[in-house]
Each structure stands twice: as structure tokens, then as C-alpha cells.
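About this split. The held-out portion is used to measure sequence recovery: a designer receives only the C-alpha cells and must propose an amino acid at every position. Recovery is the fraction of positions where the proposal matches the reference. Here is one held-out target exactly as it appears in the evaluation file.
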């Protein structure tokens, strides 16, 4: 019984943020008839307004993000063409990142320093987990497989912690950039401000939720490991 409760708690901690983010985004994804423009149009307008020269607005199938290397605000089709609170808030969030880099704010160093590290660690963890059956086959020592698994799990945990480290960058884009812009610029009526705050909070937590989901995928590898050790 205690094991089941512990399992449910772990699953809720891992799945909860991702499910909440999806729920918030869908909840506020209904088109607003009075919305003066789409998410893509707002993004381009804000880039022009803040004179962020050289930054483009593009559509992408890879999820909403700002690409500092190519200086591009990349939005999903739903956000780029959408006239919902979700579309407008997410577009403002990504432009918030463009503003951060344009102003060369110190907080941008968090992503430049730690995000590539998180990606490298995650790839290393997956490689190690892939190597478990090979380690068992070569050395015929179950402990070797266990050690490989422990290293893989540790690497995944470190990757999650790194995502938490760069959370201030996402929070700044949402609540020090996007939200004040939407309010002071009268881009949203007051009755939609709370909805925008929810969306911006979800946008800020997206990377952390994705890293937690990687931990869930790790469970599949542990199941494979159990069979390999036997």
C-alpha cells in the first residue's frame, strides 16, 4: 500500500506539471473575437516597437521558442495564426526572450551556459542506458549493468536540476517582460489579464515539465535493465 502511494506521488510530481501546462494552454486557446491581431502579428509588432533589429518571426513544428543563435522568434502554427489569449501570451513570452538577448541581460548567460550542458547530459544518460545490455553481454557481471544504470539515472536527475537553474530566465521572460508589455500596451482587456498570467506561468515552466517527463521515460529503461540483469 505504501509503495502504491509512493508511486502515485512520484507520478503526480512528474506528470502533474505537464498535464497542468497542457490544460492551461487549451483552456485559453479559444479565439477571442475582439483580439486585434494574431500571435505572429503581435510578435512582429513588438519586435518593431522595441527596435530589435535583425530578429525574424517564423513558424515552426518544433514548439514555440526563441533561437538566439539565428535570432528568430519561432512560433507554432496555432500561436502564429491564433487570436486567443494563449497565442498572444506565448508570442509575448518568446519576444521577451528576444528582448533579453537584445539588451544582453546577464540572465541570458544561464541558458547559454547550462542549456547545452543539460542537453549533453541527457544524451549521455540515454547512451549509457542503451549500453546496459552490451555491458552485461561483454562482462557477464550484473553489477556492471547496475552501475551503468545508476550513472544514467544520476545524469537524468542532473539534467532536471539544470532546467530548474535556468527557470529564472523563463520567469523573467513571462513576468518581467511579457506581462507588463501586455498590460501597459493595452494588448489585452483587464478581464483577460488573469488568463494571460496563467498562460505565462505555464510557458515559464515548460522546460522543467519536459525534463520531468524525461524522468518518466527513464522508467522504461529501468524495466529493460531489470530484464537484462536477470
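Reference sequence for scoring:
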Amino acid at each position: 500500500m505504501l509503495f502504491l502511494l509512493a508511486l502515485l506521488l512520484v507520478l503526480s510530481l512528474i506528470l502533474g506539471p505537464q498535464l497542468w501546462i497542457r490544460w492551461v494552454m487549451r483552456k485559453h486557446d479559444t479565439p477571442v473575437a475582439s483580439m486585434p491581431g494574431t500571435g505572429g502579428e503581435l510578435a512582429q509588432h513588438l519586435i518593431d516597437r522595441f527596435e530589435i533589429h535583425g530578429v525574424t518571426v517564423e513558424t515552426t513544428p518544433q514548439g514555440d521558442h526563441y533561437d538566439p543563435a539565428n535570432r528568430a522568434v519561432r512560433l507554432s502554427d496555432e500561436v502564429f495564426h491564433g487570436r486567443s489569449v494563449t497565442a498572444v501570451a506565448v508570442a509575448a513570452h518568446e519576444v521577451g526572450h528576444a528582448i533579453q538577448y537584445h539588451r544582453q541581460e546577464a540572465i541570458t548567460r544561464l541558458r547559454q551556459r547550462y542549456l547545452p550542458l543539460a542537453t549533453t547530459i541527457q544524451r549521455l544518460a540515454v547512451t549509457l542506458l542503451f549500453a546496459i545490455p552490451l555491458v552485461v553481454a561483454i562482462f557477464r557481471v550484473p553489477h556492471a549493468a547496475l552501475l551503468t544504470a545508476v550513472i544514467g539515472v544520476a545524469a537524468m536527475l542532473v539534467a532536471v536540476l539544470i532546467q530548474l537553474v535556468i527557470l529564472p530566465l523563463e520567469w523573467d521572460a513571462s513576468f518581467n517582460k511579457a506581462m507588463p508589455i501586455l498590460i501597459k500596451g493595452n494588448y489585452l482587456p483587464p478581464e483577460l489579464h488573469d488568463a494571460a498570467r496563467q498562460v505565462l506561468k505555464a510557458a515559464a515552466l515548460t522546460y522543467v515539465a519536459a525534463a520531468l517527463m524525461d524522468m518518466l521515460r527513464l522508467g522504461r529503461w529501468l524495466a529493460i535493465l531489470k530484464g537484462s540483469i536477470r
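Annotator remark: The two ends are 26 Å apart (CA to CA).
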